Amino acid sequence: MAKQFDVVVIGAGPGGYIAAIRAAQLGMSVACIDAWTTGDGKPAPGGTCTNVGCIPSKALLQSSEHYEQATQHFAEHGIEIKGATLKLDTLLGRKNNVVKQNNDGILYLFKKNKVTFFHGMGSFAAQVDGGWSIKVSGASDEDLVARHVIVATGSSPRALPGAPYDEKQILSNDGALAIPEVPKKLGVIGAGVIGLELGSVWRRLGAEVTILEALPEFLSVADQQVAKEAQKAFAKQGLAIHTGVKIGEVKTAARNVTVVYTDASGADQKLVVDKLIVSIGRVPRTEGLGAEVVGLKLDERGFVAVDEDCRSNLPNVWAVGDVVRGPMLAHKAEEEGVAVAERIAGQHGHVNFGTIPSVIYTSPEIAWVGKNEQQLKTEGREYKAGSFPFLANGRARALGDTTGFVKILADAKTDEVLGVHIIGPVASELISEAVTIMEFRGAAEDIARICHAHPTLSEAVKEAALAVDKRALNF
What residues make up the catalytic site (predicted)? Predict the structure, then answer.
């Protein structure tokens, strides 16, 4: 006898588990299916983000930052450390423990909110009376019937043609988080978020890192003033970044990987490294979902086709997160998950794509929300700009981290904030104020008139807002 639920969520990543919890909060009977497994065979909900993405990469970034501070910068504070050594197995073990805590936390939240969890692969079997028949294939197979289905199966790393991942020498984000010893030479193909973050981790730990990027401009998705500041900072740290390259053959040998490529000038080049991280984007994960069995429509790129409310072409079948259009960000998936659960309950779930922040957790951190200057110029929109350097911020000086600036773009006539771009210490936290202001369609003047505690890094946001009107007080 099939088990009946109001909502079945396929996938327990950020979009899936949050959708399941919100639906349960709204009084529905909910099941969530996820196949992710730990090394010892136990359930590991949380998807790519928790297991091989956001969470473990931040753990490694924190640990590697501590190591670099201890070996290179503590002396500036009068703290002398002699003979500091790296215990990589301990560092990786801490990362694994952080991941496990998050896995266990999600299982606890399911129990707390009365969400039934099934460990296995979830797939469509048929349309039936009362909704959709969903099969769970795992340690013990189950048959479920759902009135509504939310597909939240996430994404997988895109492999380089002719160079499949073996997770030993050619690494995806998964293998790059678990290299057993620091490579002497590390290559990274792709200067996006994953490439820059993981490249930074292993550089701090002692690797010589070379990043190859196909696009002619570094960080073309960011404001170009921010991108130039970031490239300068990374070069100073020792990250070798080459843009405008065309990758040719990738050959693996017993102990190295050779990348043949053409540089921006058209000259043939060869890079020989111990390990190669390939981070050239991600693709939607729909294999094994059974989309073809029930006629669930996928678009030309393989994403589940949905409308602006995340409805698919099938009645009461929804999809959220990386498996649908839009930015592949965990927080975007969460917002869509909540919105869909509320729509199922008859409410008006809301997601504003214009105020979804983007963050790169390097040092300096990079964060932005809204439009950048090149976009506003392309649109022909009249705007004002104000910026403020962390070099002039008292808290940043005290921290010893004065790289970067805050930049605010506002409408020339109404003063509405159109975009905020930050490069510098804890930009990931500072961007939230900008998101809030933009959600309320606030003005630069609103930020300028809000009292910010002193001394704080957030004062740089206020000063940038003052600078929009050419009245910064500390610069």
Answer: 454 (proton acceptor)
